[in-house]
Specification:
The protein has about 425 residues and is α+β, with helices and mostly antiparallel strands. It is built from 12 helices and 16 strands. The protein has helices at about 90, 105-125, 155, 175-185, 225-245, 245-255, 260-265, 275-285, 305-310, 365-370, 380, 395-400; strands at about 1-10, 15-20, 25-30, 45-55, 60-70, 130, 135, 150, 170, 190-195, 210-220, 275, 320-325, 340-350, 355-360, 385-395. The strands form 3 sheets. The protein has an 8-stranded mixed beta sheet, sandwiched between helices. The protein has a 5-stranded mixed beta sheet with strand order 1-2-3-5-4, with no helix packed on it. The longest helix has 23 residues, at about 105-125. It is elongated. The chain starts with a strand and ends in a 20-residue tail after the last helix.
């Protein structure tokens, strides 16, 4: 592992070694003669000895060293991270290639790993087929976001008319939903969990150019309740798994990063409220708070609206259902209601974040879609069934779970950080 602290006394040498598997380090007790000049904070070492019961109450075991070998030395004067210093995240962001050595971001990566496994396990145990949807695609998923277009280096140099490598313009995917809908014609439950890309040139704390999306489609359902129940069960399962597998890592965030998030995060294990979009607008209109965007029926809910609604409902996760027909994409199922025409759509709002998941029942009735969009028809001609689905931004879930202020801190490699490794 790597040396997290070194303390040499006259009769004993104490080391704390960490191999990245846990926030906890292993204490090594050695004879001072085993120490060398290269045995410094940050150095990589191999220690051999005997595990013995520790006399200290704060730890169960310690390693009584017989040999210590420095595998990789570390110059403590040039190493940007300092022993026993709690570096702010603003400082750590300057060194993207070393951020995983920091306790906070190391904990986050372990949590991310456990949450990923929990999500896959949830879908597997509930009978879902995992689909690898394409990363390179010719569709833009009905305008889900700005697209990154893919070109070869030769194409990029040519300014005149050109032949595309794929014969048609190709893009990095913004969503796997349309491909999942194809698969939902053969499998009753499918999901994907992969990278998606949005070319919004934003440096805000809420946006990423590359992020991971959890998406699922459920066939043979005519109830929006079925969709919201899967969303709720997924969130509860992933969160309870992370809390049980990474208690010390989570506690670090609740102690030093976002103390107020502990109660909020526990809330997602128990209570979920449900209101309609129309009820949400009425709540916002009656609010004493002044909003930058005036709430009106027929307009999108802004982040400030979503956060107020969650607060109004007691800082617990909140499902908002049945959005205006004209606000949502063509594939969402028409509720055939009036006079306020709505579709069977749902957004899950959570404390501190706003929207975390979005989904809907899909419009399976061919004659309803014929009047709206011709290119979508083939999916509905051959064995079409009532179905629905949802998507959840994985990094936004981690941001909610841990109370991280800047979403760029929850990804292993921030934008363009790979250049520092060249």
């Amino acid at each position: 592992g790597w040396v997290r602290s070194v303390r040499s006394q006259k009769e004993v040498l104490f080391l704390h070694i960490n191999d990245g598997s846990s926030l906890e380090s292993l204490q090594v007790v050695a004879d001072p003669s085993l120490g060398t000049r290269d045995l410094t904070f940050g150095s990589a070492v191999e220690v051999r000895g005997k595990l013995v019961k520790s006399p200290h109450r704060m730890q169960n075991m310690e390693l009584k060293a017989e040999t210590i070998r420095v595998v990789g030395p570390c110059d403590i004067w040039s190493f940007p991270l300092k022993m026993k210093e709690r570096h702010p995240l603003e400082y750590i962001r300057q060194f993207p290639h070393l951020r995983c050595r920091n306790n906070t971001l190391g904990s986050l990566l372990r949590i991310r790993s456990e949450a990923t496994a929990a999500i896959h396990s949830f879908f597997k145990e509930n009978g879902y087929v995992h689909i690898h949807t394409p990363i390179i695609t010719s569709n833009d998923c009905e305008g889900a976001g700005e697209l990154f277009q893919i070109e070869t280096s030769n194409e990029a140099r040519e300014s005149a008319e050109k032949n595309h490598f794929f014969d048609v313009p190709a893009f990095l995917t913004v969503s796997g939903q349309l491909h999942l809908e194809v698969m939902a014609g053969a499998f009753t439950h499918v999901f994907t969990f992969g990278p998606t890309f949005r070319a919004e040139n934003s440096q805000s704390r809420r946006h990423l150019a590359e992020f991971y999306m959890v998406e699922a489609e459920l066939s043979f359902t005519e109830s929006l309740q079925d969709i919201t129940q899967v969303m709720e069960d997924l969130l509860k399962t992933a969160t309870s798994t992370v809390l049980s597998k990474c208690p010390h890592d989570v506690e670090l965030f609740h102690k030093y990063v976002a103390p107020e998030q502990k109660l909020s995060q526990r809330g997602c294990l128990f209570i979920y409220f449900r209101i309609s979009y129309s009820e949400a607008v009425e709540i916002l209109k009656q609010a004493a708070q002044a909003f930058a965007f005036k709430p009106e029926w027929g307009y999108d809910l802004q982040t400030e609206h979503e956060k107020y609604l969650v607060k109004h409902c007691g800082e617990v996760p909140l499902f908002v259902i049945n959005y205006p027909y004209d606000l949502k994409p063509f594939y969402m199922r028409d509720n055939e209601d009036g006079p306020q025409h709505t579709v069977a759509a749902v957004d899950l709002l959570v404390p501190g974040i706003g929207e975390l998941c979005g989904g809907s029942l899909r419009e399976e009735r061919l004659h309803f879609i014929e009047s709206r969009l011709q290119r979508y028809l083939d999916l509905r001609k051959f064995g079409s069934v009532p179905h629905g689905g949802f998507g959840m931004g994985f990094e936004r879930y981690l941001q909610y779970l841990l109370g991280v202020d800047n979403i760029k801190d929850v990804i292993p490699f921030p934008r363009f950080s790979h250049s520092c490794l060249l």
